[in-house]
Input
Amino acid sequence: RVEEQVGLLLTSHKSMVGYHSALCFDERSKRVFRYSGIENRALGSSLCYLKSYWRENPFLGLQSGADNYMTQTAASQNCLLSVPGEAQMVFRIHPGNTSPKFITGKSYQELPREALPKEFDCDLYRSR
Output
């Protein structure tokens, strides 16, 4: 994933790249979803950016939502490349998430368990 994102940074001449969509696993319900977000935004956990961009646009010390602020700023400056990430990333919803995650609305489409990559199939995630 990092190799792909660095390549995209270099070829796109953008300062930040991230995924606007990804697979999602909800540890509470043991369900799988495809998250499809706004195409000119990116999931905070998927960001890859130039250190020089971060120096000029640092996080503002926000306890929650700093990644949203950063991607919105990058998008408004035309510095963000937002691409699909279903083949590259599975994010987890778990009790330790920094901010609550709510699986509601059109952004989440439930998928069968088989949609998860085989590497993700381990005892921790199997339904009991």
User: Anything to note?
Assistant: Strands lie at 16-26, 31-36, 48-49, 80-84, 90-93, 108-111. The first strand starts at residue 16 and ends at 26. Residues 2-12 form the longest helix (11 residues).
